Task: inverse folding
């Protein structure tokens, strides 16, 4: 038994109690268990604090470090905010699943070895699938199955890699490695699938928008950011991640620009933001890794805020397409305000959290003299303002008057959003309070006059571009094909084709076999002088009736074969 | 709750929208001219050019919107695209 109670187990117990208890007691568990978990997170000292035997290995279920505590802190905080947001609207099983899912994420944070990491990794896959299913529509059920297949596949790839590493090095330690052989490539691939890296990125935009308005708040927080943490711990400085990250950044922007579904815009923007973090892990310097961790922290908060404001809109109107929304600021001022703060934070506008964390990544690229990376990240920052900073609030809350006059957010949803608003602005205004919790010492000043001016120019002129190009961005009632087309259509077509060919082959074969049997039977008839007529063209191989004579003949053949086989 | 209310909201009146455009133009101009007084430190050379952030931000956005538009020609499908293909699954 471990001598220390893992924070993940506290949250897991909370998830269990949510299922068992009713009424106020359940509410109390929803609100208190994340806070107890948060407390436990801060009780974990640096280094391995718990070990236990598992099979032939000594696993380390709890290992502390500033990086691990940072991620676990934002995860636990997010569970509290999500619980507050959802507890009056979500069904109990969605809350229980979401809490168990978050417990998996926190478990990965403190996993001291690859086996523990894998177990919690799969816990996340399992319960996040249930959260997707809680969308409770045929679309959500189908998307949940696709999501589960992708994540189980990712889990298997990760497992193959872990087993390879354990067999070849004899160590289950979770420590930095280089993707130089098959085993480490498998681990990297498994993690990148969870990070929504190309070409398996489409699962995210496929599944998250199908969940319930409350479910997507939880989903946006854990899976991809746990993958970022795993990358920081296992593959810091792996240079291919720079280019994978940049691809994700651009891919997220382009697809978000094409998208009509409000939550799908936000889903693509997760890929975009995670791209910044993956790129930073690839750069791999202390400042870059600080930037990746800080950006993940800030991102979880403002992305949840954005999903919360979209969730309120969907909860109140039942609509989620930009073409059906618009003009909601009239009756939903609080939701619009919170959505706009989230949008400003994701864009990295000065005085918001995004500015103090994202610019750290750009600075790390500049310090390493990665000119192209620096310029592409700057262009991407402009693009983020375009697709998330303005597009999301504009099409949902402004553009035209949709005639919808929904009520504003219920009080608990409003309170959760305001809590996150305070954090977005707090980290933006007092970055040094936050920087002290980053994994490495911070030598970075975000608020220099020159830097602020540069980013203001960059962002405000992308705003100008948005409004000038508005006619080009008119929303259409369409979807955009993504890589999920491969497994939703292409593979399906291939299987269909193969099964048709297979059926044709089996038809042809059975005909040949039948003909052979018939001819044997005719000959037998001839020799035995039997008068039994042979029926022809009967339907189906198994539905056919056979003359007793023929059956007796085959039984005789079988028995003879058996006797011969028995003796020899 | 009637629709006529909405048309009178101060934020959507043509006068306000004109005012917003003017304000935006002034702010944009200010951020550019501020560079006469504030030095923007360049890290990679080009970014120390005058008003680099302004035209780089603007042009990248135009490029991204046009690229998205172009890709949209190939990638956009009707919303029922997958439903029609998955019903028989």
Result:
């Amino acid at each position: 038994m471990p001598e220390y109670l893992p924070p993940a187990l506290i949250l897991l117990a909370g998830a269990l109690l949510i299922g068992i208890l009713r009424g106020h007691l359940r509410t109390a568990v929803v609100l208190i268990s994340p806070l107890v978990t948060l407390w436990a997170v801060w009780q974990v000292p640096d280094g391995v604090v718990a070990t236990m035997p598992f099979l032939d290995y000594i696993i380390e279920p709890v290992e502390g470090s500033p990086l691990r505590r940072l991620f676990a802190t934002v995860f636990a905080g997010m569970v509290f905010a999500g619980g507050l947001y959802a507890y009056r609207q979500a069904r109990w099983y969605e809350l229980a699943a979401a809490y168990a899912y978050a417990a998996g994420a926190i478990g990965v944070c403190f996993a001291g070895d690859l086996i523990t990491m894998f177990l919690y990794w799969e816990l996340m896959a399992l319960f996040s699938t249930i959260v997707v299913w809680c969308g409770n529509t045929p679309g959500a059920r189908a998307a949940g199955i696709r999501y589960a297949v992708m994540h189980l596949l990712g889990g298997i790839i990760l497992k193959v890699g872990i087993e390879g590493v354990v067999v070849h090095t004899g160590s289950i330690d979770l420590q930095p490695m280089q993707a130089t052989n098959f085993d480490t490539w498998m681990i990297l691939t498994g993690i990148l699938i969870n990070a929504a890296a190309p070409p398996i990125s489409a699962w995210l935009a496929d599944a998250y928008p199908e969940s319930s308005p409350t479910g997507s708040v939880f989903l946006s927080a854990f899976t991809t950011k746990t993958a970022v943490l795993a990358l920081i711990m296992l593959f810091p400085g792996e240079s291919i991640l720079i280019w994978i990250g940049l691809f994700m950044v651009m891919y997220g922007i382009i697809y978000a620009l094409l998208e009509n579904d409000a939550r799908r815009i936000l889903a693509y923007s997760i890929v975009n933001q995670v791209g910044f973090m993956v790129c930073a892990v690839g750069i791999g310097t202390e400042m870059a890794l600080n930037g990746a961790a800080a950006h993940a922290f800030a991102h979880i908060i403002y992305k949840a805020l954005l999903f919360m404001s979209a969730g309120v809109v969907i909860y109140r109107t039942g609509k989620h397409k930009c073409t059906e929304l618009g003009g909601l600021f009239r009756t939903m001022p609080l939701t619009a305000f919170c959505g706009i703060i989230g949008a400003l934070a994701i864009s990295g506008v000065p005085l918001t959290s995004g500015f103090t964390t994202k610019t750290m990544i750009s600075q790390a690229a500049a310090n390493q003299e990665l000119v192209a990376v620096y310029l592409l990240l700057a262009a991407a920052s402009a693009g983020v303002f375009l697709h998330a900073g303005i597009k999301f609030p504009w099409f949902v809350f402004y553009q035209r008057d949709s005639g919808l006059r929904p009520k504003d957010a219920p009080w608990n949803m409003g309170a959760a959003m305001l809590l996150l608003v305070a954090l977005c602005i707090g980290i933006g205004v007092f970055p040094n309070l936050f920087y002290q919790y980053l994994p490495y010492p911070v030598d970075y000043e975000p608020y220099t006059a020159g830097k602020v001016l540069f980013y203001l120019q960059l962002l405000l002129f992308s705003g100008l571009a948005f409004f000038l190009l508005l006619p080009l961005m008119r929303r259409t009632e369409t979807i955009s094909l993504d890589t999920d087309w491969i497994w939703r259509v292409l593979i399906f077509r291939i299987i269909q084709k193969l099964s048709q060919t297979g059926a044709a082959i089996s038809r042809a074969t059975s005909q040949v076999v039948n003909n052979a049997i018939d001819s044997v039977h005719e000959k037998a008839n001839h020799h035995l002088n039997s008068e039994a007529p042979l029926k022809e063209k009967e339907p189906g191989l198994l539905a056919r009736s056979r003359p007793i004579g023929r059956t007796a003949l085959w039984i005789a053949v079988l028995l003879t074969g058996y006797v011969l086989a028995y003796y020899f | 709750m009637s629709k006529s209310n909405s048309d009178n909201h101060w934020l959507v009146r043509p006068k306000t929208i004109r005012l917003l455009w003017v304000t935006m133009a002034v702010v944009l101009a200010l951020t550019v001219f501020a560079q006469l007084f504030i030095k923007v430190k360049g890290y990679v050379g080009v970014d120390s050019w005058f008003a680099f952030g302004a035209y780089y931000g603007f042009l990248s956005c135009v490029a991204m919107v046009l690229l998205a538009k172009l890709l949209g020609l190939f990638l956009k499908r009707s919303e029922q695209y997958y439903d029609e293909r998955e019903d028989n699954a």
Q: What stands out?
A: Chain A has a mean pLDDT of 91.
